[in-house]
Design goal:
The chain is mainly beta. Helices cover 0% and strands 44% of the residues.
Length: 332
């Protein structure tokens, strides 16, 4: 009869019950709410990097170097931070980590970074890898946002060597497109437009992208077919009973409850939806942080309400659904 906060769902009533009434009927929303204190679970020192592992997922992190030294670092797997040994520095580097968990609770940790001593003439570095969103061979529309993701922070990029290729004919270099790094220099987001009739490609020559460890990628060619709008559906709708002070998230989910797309205003439109059945749900974003927040029993905070449209939505190719509305329940 003990509550395991890391693995079990919990629900609670905010107000006392009336035990003297003839019938008791209460609806209790159950949700995961890991309120265990955030702490450093272990560290993994290596020659090339040093990893700090936490006991639970981290939503936000801020690292402050307490001396004049500095190291590139990258959050990994949601629960850890990896620091890279890439420049001359003292034997030990002292940092302060401010970590915030999924409940919004923050903890500050003083941490010493000490890499293992090198043995041998050359270091054995992890290979630099890259993935993309959308994944290779996934259709792209003529106006698209594209993200390249790396397993290490990137030191330099030659944006004149990387090309967007349209139908194997037209080459446009990256320096003529809009692109930006995330704060860790591990995700490159590109906004572009293509006039392709058949396919869209990215050509990335060897040496165009160099990590903080000085290694690079081999020549890479990423190919995507052009998205045909006629193969997809569109959904339009409104959020009923919403006023200017109400914050919400409207989400379209597939039958496995995987989020296809999210919007934050009404009226809303979902485009380029593959044919199939979908759920529509509304999250009341009470604290306006554009995500669903679970409850906190120790602070008497309930999970943010989630409302589902009762019936699934059937999406057909080359078809528009209008007035697919979802209502916010009126306060009693």
């Amino acid at each position: 009869m003990l509550f395991n906060a890391k693995d079990e769902r919990i629900g609670f009533l905010t107000k006392p019950i009336n035990a003297g009434s003839d019938s008791l009927n209460y609806q209790i929303s159950m949700a995961l709410s890991d309120n265990t204190p955030l702490k450093v679970q272990r560290t993994i020192p290596k020659v090339n990097n040093y990893t700090v592992v936490f006991n639970k997922a981290i939503e936000k992190i801020n690292v402050t170097f307490t001396n004049k030294d500095s190291l590139p670092y990258l959050p990994e797997n949601g629960t850890q931070i990896k620091f890279f040994n890439v420049q001359p520095h003292p034997d030990s580097t002292f940092i302060k980590i401010l970590a915030i968990d999924s409940l919004g609770k923050s903890e500050t940790f003083n941490q010493k970074i000490a890499f293992l001593p090198q043995r041998g003439k050359e270091r054995q570095r992890d290979q630099l890898t890259m993935s993309s969103k959308p994944e290779q061979n996934k259709p792209l529309s003529s106006n698209f946002t594209y993200t390249l993701l790396f397993n290490k922070p990137i030191q330099t990029i030659n944006d004149q060597n990387i090309s967007l290729v349209t139908d194997s004919l037209t080459h446009e270099t990256l320096n003529n497109l809009k692109w930006k790094w995330n704060v860790y220099h591990s995700e490159l987001t590109i906004t572009a437009q293509s006039f392709a009739k058949d396919s869209i490609k990215w050509e990335i020559p060897k040496g165009s992208i160099i990590s903080v460890e000085g290694d690079t990628l081999p020549r890479i060619l990423l190919k995507h077919p052009l998205l045909n709008e006629e193969n997809y559906g569109i959904v339009h709708g409104n959020v009923i009973n919403a006023d200017t002070s109400t914050h919400f998230i409207v989400e379209l989910l597939d039958e496995q409850y995987k989020v296809f797309h999210s919007v934050y205003s009404s009226p809303y439109t979902f485009r380029q939806i593959p044919q199939g059945k979908y759920f529509l749900r509304l999250i009341l974003d009470i604290n306006n942080n554009r995500r669903w927040d679970t409850g906190q029993i120790d602070e008497d905070i309930q999970p943010e309400p989630i409302i589902y449209l009762p019936e699934k939505i059937l999406i057909k190719s080359n078809f528009e659904l209008n007035d697919v509305n979802i209502s916010i329940p009126k306060a009693k």
